[in-house]
Amino acid sequence: MSVEPEGDSLLRKVRMILGAFDAGSPVLGLSELARRTGLAKTTAHRVATEMVDVGLLNRHGRRYELGPLLFELGQRVPRTRALRLIAARYLEDLALTTRETVVLAFPGDQDVLFVEKYFSQRGGGITFTQVEDRVPFHCGASGKALLAFGDPALRERVLAAPLRRRTQWTITDPARLAADLEQARRQGYAVERQELVVGYGAVAAPVFAAGVAVATLTVTGPIDRLDISRLAPVVTAAGRALTRDFESVND
Fold first, then answer.
1. Claim: this prediction has a pTM higher than 0.85
2. Domain that holds residue 159
């Protein structure tokens, strides 16, 4: 049964409904929206209807999906747009140099957001289609780099929450994850081996603004050719160069 928090504001309910969607569930019915948000079905219907009216959601019969207005608004965030534009050449260069799939990732409210992907010719566009556009912070190299070098409040929140298992190699012990993040800080990059997708691993380097990681450059590929000694230097060098370019634009 849905347990709706008393006195929740409309904006909080809108945020709950937006957060109910993910790459695996881009379209949701009313019952599922109510279940995922904990809102009463009548409340979920009322708020979703208002969101459709203003363009935050689209409705197809009795099912809902995120509206294009959200993408349009996201493109207006100056820092996000600038970083994506500047990062394009680094993503392309890394894909050519490493011959693996390269990703630009941002920290979301609850998950890591993969906002740009460059597929190598060797990867054939296959490698990263196995991963959603949003994944938990604790599972992948991108998330671990953001936790290690990003906002301490985010790190504390993730370490305090349940660490759900994605594969048999996913780190679910907070103490072990904290140690992994400390190692990432010492070496300047984060690594994951089959913690997100079986058979694949990744190396991620932070991109900074004012000393805090605001994004990562991540190279991912099959675990049998994940040569950290080869990949880590080029990924971290690209991260430092992108940081320098990004900060020069924001000075």
1. no
2. 77-250
